[in-house]
Amino acid sequence: MVVGESYSIWAARVDAFANAPIPNSKFRFPNSQFLIPAMHPRLLVTPLFTLHTFGALLAAAYLAALWWLMRGARRERLNADTLASLGMWAIAGAIIGAKALLTIRSLPQGASEVWSLSLLTSAGDFYGGFLGGVLASALFFRLHPELAFWQAADLCAPAIALGQAIGRIGCLMAGDDYGRPTQVRWAVTFTDPDAARLGGAPLGVPLHPVQLYESIVCLALFAFLVWLARRKRFEGEIILAYTLLYAAARFVLEFFRGDDDRGFVFGGLLSTSQFIGLILFVISLVLLRVRLRSRVVASR
Q: pTM of the entire structure?
C-alpha cells in the first residue's frame, strides 16, 4: 500500500460529505476558508526576544494541568505539594519523551535538527511525551510509596486532557501537526512563513484544522472525565477511560493529518501514533475489565 493512501481515501470522503448541500436548510458555511495571519505564530516580537504563540500556549497548558491536578488533590485530601511534584516529574518526562520519539521517527533526516528546535516552537510527539511522563511518574511513585498509584493517576487524567486542549491551539497557531489539503468550508490556510519554517505547514493551501479538531475532542474528553469522576466505581477507572477514549479518537484524527513525515508502520497502513494508540487501547480495555472484575469480586 502506498504511504498515506488510506488517509487520502478517508479525507476525500469527509470532504465530499462536508461540501454536500444540507437538505431543507438555508444554513451554509462561508465559501472562503479561515486565514491564519502573520501575527499568530509570534505572540510578541521585541529587539531582545520573540515570544512564540506555541510556547506561550504550551506553558499555559502545563500550568492549567498542574492547577487542575492540585485542585483535585485538595478535594481528595491528598498532599498537594506531593501531587505538584508528581506533575513536575511527569512534565519533565513528557518533554524528554516527546523529543525522544520524534528523534527516532526523524532518524533518516537527522536527529540533531529535532533537538535543535526550541520548546517554544515545537514540543515533539505526544505519545512519546505520554510514555515519557508515565515512566517519570513510575519512578516518582517508587520514591513515594505512600502515594496511591491509581488514585493519583485518576486525578491526572482530566488534567492531561485539559492541557492537550490548550496545547493543540498552540499547534494550530504555529502550523505544527497540520491537516491534509481539503476544500471543506471550515478549512484553514496558513500565510506566515514561520508556519512553514517552524511547523512545516504548506502556505496558501486550504487544510483540515486537525489541531482544532483534537482540541475540541480533548475539551469534550476533559468534561466527560470530570463527570465520570463523580461517579467513579473503582480506582483507575478515570485514567483508563482517558487512555481508551483518547486512543480511539486519535486513531480517527490521524486520517486528517497532512504531515506525512510523522512516521508510518506496516508499509504505510498505520501511522506511528495509530500503532501506539492501538496498543494503549487494548491494554486499557483489558485493565478496565480486570479492575472492574476485581471490584465486583471484592464486593461479594
A: 0.82
